[in-house]
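Quick one, probably user error.
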């Protein structure tokens, strides 16, 4: 039964619990305690306190990504609220329905005073990266504002929302009957993130089906929208029924099995020449829930062919024409639209063209050759650890023990994608949309809390590891079974490699000291050890698991190694630097690169020949399997 009057803090926490929010990520703050202290009184509700607000935001994001259940981040006002921005932006880019809450100053800003750092409209800062923003005007206003925010976050194009709560409301009294009952707050089930279903227009489907049937070299390009719509089975049905090869974006990793005969293998650039040949020679591309970000070359020349006919399936109309101009835009959710398209293409008994067999065989041969070449490179005897071997060792553990994997860094995600085993749906996590550095530790915490029966492995670069190193205390305090593997090459190596290749080794801010990250982790109470031979990672992992708690492995690798897929990445991400290159300095850079050794040079030259020049005569052999 409702009490007659309750405090504003208790009222707000009761409303959150009654909306099915069972996890609130926050920090230790006396000003927030009126909400946080009462929130945990409601059944299974939990408050997870991070060491800073940025990390708390990313934890909430990780929880939602893995668990497909709503969560909230709650911070104080002013700078504390603005510390959410980086995490909210990542959620916006990847369309994650994150509920962002923060306290704000009472009253309205007085713009006649100029800028007041204690009274500005902080909600405006969130405008560009949220679906919905609102400042709560009264306690009576809060239940409706919260319901509206959640509805917007779970709309067709999901995304974060933000509510500002004036601090003065927490100490006010309110009639309990104006909100949910205490019983409702305790018993409501956790709110699940359910995909919106939207059937596509039949004429649009028929237009797309006609383009598919007329294709000579079709390709499916699967993005993160396949995961958002739970459309993995429908994607496989379309590909298998007609024998169409499948590439995935970085966000689409796991949406189609990488070891399937129709798969190009790793996502995006990480598939090397297989991906490059496919996107240059395909004449029709069926893009499913793909935003065509920089991690995929934007779907535009010079990497993609300008002769491709695009069929673009997306639930958000503003995605059409954002980068590629689709010949057949299909507005609908991925699962429903894929079912419709499969039925339409297969009408009248159509099963694909026999000529597509040669196209499949060509791509399959490229895939096999690349995989073999990568393994040979990583398994050579190097004087220091090769990052490819680092990724191979971790991948073997992920596959064997069914671990959840979080990736963080610059080159580390590229190596992980290149060498990763076939993974399942929502088994690998990375902020694909913004590709932001430093969120690995808090992401791992959120992912593990969403799956308490699973172990989580974080593969991170040494530079990115230090962004949120303070959250090792959170991992230890919560005793979470998280293993952190640090790719320690003492460099910001993605940028350092470009300085090496383009600027004659004029290294600026990219060389890091030889830090013993195992000692840092030990200081936080984690089991830890330093590994100088990456072949010993598996044994170190066994010792880490036997420790019974969180652990860290500091693996020493060689900054002389560069993932070949970085060349593809750099053509897009560093495009603006090429116009200002000094030709003499560039020539000197090329000459100095001979120090990398014959095996590295041969590997890179083979990549350029096969991926960019598309000179792959042997891959054409093998018939039409």
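Nope, works fine. Designed sequence:
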């Amino acid at each position: 039964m409702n009490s007659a009057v309750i405090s504003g803090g208790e009222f707000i926490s009761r409303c959150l619990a009654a909306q099915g929010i069972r996890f609130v990520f926050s920090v230790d703050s006396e000003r927030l305690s009126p909400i946080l202290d009462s929130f945990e009184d409601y059944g299974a509700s939990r408050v997870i306190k991070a060491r800073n607000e940025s990390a708390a935001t990313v934890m909430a994001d990780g929880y939602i990504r893995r668990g497909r259940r709503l969560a909230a981040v709650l911070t104080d006002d002013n700078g504390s609220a603005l510390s959410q921005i980086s995490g909210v932006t990542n959620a916006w880019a990847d369309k994650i329905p994150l509920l962002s809450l923060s306290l704000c100053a009472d009253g309205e800003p007085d713009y006649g005073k100029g800028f007041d750092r204690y009274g500005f409209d902080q909600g405006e800062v969130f405008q560009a990266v949220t679906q919905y923003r609102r400042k709560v005007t009264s306690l009576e206003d809060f239940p409706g504002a919260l319901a509206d925010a959640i509805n917007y976050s779970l709309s067709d194009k999901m995304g974060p929302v933000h509510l500002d709560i004036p601090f003065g409301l927490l100490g006010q009294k309110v009639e309990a009957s104006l909100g949910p009952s205490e019983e409702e707050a305790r018993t409501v089930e956790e709110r699940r993130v359910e995909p919106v279903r939207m059937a596509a227009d039949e004429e649009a489907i028929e237009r797309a089906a006609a383009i598919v049937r007329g294709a000579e070299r079709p390709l499916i390009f699967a993005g993160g929208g396949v995961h958002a719509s739970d459309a993995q089975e429908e994607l496989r049905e379309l590909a298998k029924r007609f024998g169409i090869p499948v590439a995935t974006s970085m966000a689409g990793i796991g949406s189609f099995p990488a070891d399937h005969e129709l798969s190009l293998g790793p996502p995006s650039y990480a598939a090397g020449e297989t991906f490059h040949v496919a996107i240059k020679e395909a004449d029709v591309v069926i893009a499913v829930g793909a935003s065509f970000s920089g991690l995929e070359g934007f779907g535009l020349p010079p990497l993609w062919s300008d002769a491709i006919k695009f069929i673009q399936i997306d639930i958000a109309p503003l995605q059409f024409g954002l980068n590629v101009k689709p010949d057949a835009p299909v507005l609908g959710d991925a699962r429903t639209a894929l079912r419709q398209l499969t039925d339409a293409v297969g009408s009248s008994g159509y099963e694909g063209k026999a000529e597509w067999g040669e196209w499949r065989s060509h791509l399959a041969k490229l895939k096999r050759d690349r995989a073999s070449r990568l393994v040979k490179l990583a398994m050579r005897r190097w004087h220091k650890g090769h990052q490819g071997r680092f990724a191979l060792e971790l991948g073997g553990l992920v596959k064997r023990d069914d671990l959840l994997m979080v990736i963080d860094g610059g080159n580390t995600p590229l190596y992980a994608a290149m060498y990763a085993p076939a993974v399942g749906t929502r088994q690998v996590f990375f902020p694909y949309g913004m590709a932001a550095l430093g969120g690995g530790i808090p992401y791992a915490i959120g992912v593990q809390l969403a799956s308490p029966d699973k172990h989580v492995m974080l593969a991170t670069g040494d530079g990115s590891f230090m962004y949120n190193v303070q959250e090792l205390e959170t991992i230890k305090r919560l005793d979470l079974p998280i293993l952190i593997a640090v790719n320690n090459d003492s460099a910001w190596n993605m940028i350092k490699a470009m300085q090496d290749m383009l600027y004659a080794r004029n290294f600026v801010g990219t060389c890091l000291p030889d830090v013993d990250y195992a000692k840092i982790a030990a200081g936080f109470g984690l089991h830890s050890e330093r590994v100088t031979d990456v072949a010993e990672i598996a044994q170190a992992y066994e010792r880490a698991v036997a420790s019974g708690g969180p652990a860290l492995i500091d693996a020493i690798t060689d900054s002389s190694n560069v993932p070949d897929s970085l060349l593809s990445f750099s053509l897009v991400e560093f495009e603006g630097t090429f116009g200002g290159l000094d030709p003499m300095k560039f020539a000197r850079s090329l000459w100095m690169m001979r120090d990398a050794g014959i095996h590295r040079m041969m590997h890179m030259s083979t990549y350029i020949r096969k991926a960019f020049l598309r000179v792959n005569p042997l891959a054409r052999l093998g018939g039409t399997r």
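The two ends are 70 Å apart (CA to CA).
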